[in-house]
Amino acid sequence: MLIEGSLIGESYARNFAKAAAKRGIRVVAVEHIAQTAQDVGAAIARVRDAQAGALVHCGFGFGVVFVNPALRELDWDPPRVMGTAFENAWINPVMWQAIVGWTGLDQYDEGNRLGQAFLDRFAARYGRRPEYCVPVVNRDIATVLLHAFADAHPLSPRGVKEALERVKMIPAASGAPGTRINFGKWMRRGWMGAGYLVARRLDPDGESAHLVARFGQD
To answer: Which one is predicted more confidently, 188 or 122?
Structure first.
């Protein structure tokens, strides 16, 4: 495990360790790395020397910038997995290259027909088709806000908050087919469903990502 020095890095690591123990996966090395782009060559070498079968990253994702170069320097190409830090790939070319070859959690699924219909309309209007998480996630957020603003009585902070609690089970454009958005009272968790996150891998061609798995399906 590569654990970024942050609250979320430690939280991800604790939960991954619990899940690994249940599934008989042995953690043979733990290395703490910075949550910004720093030299990680020595840490990666120690993980390789421990004969790890894969790399698991826990954190925001900016700490992996020099992991791929370190792997090339060591001539080591293990499977590598991360959480939603995977979505950082779309920020800029530096992060894209840092995450090439990694499998991570994402909210874009080309099998979601609502999301694809949204991208169809986007492409018809703007002449491009951004097939990644940010457009469909932002579409979902905008949809929730529009429902809340339209249903707020009065149109005040409290009115909007109470209207948000009436937003229940709206079909989502992001996530696997069947994902819903629910901000009902006492829940307020947003995206719901076993497949609201999917696993994708950033392809070595540097041009695309492909679906690896949907969760909650036999």
So the answer is: 122
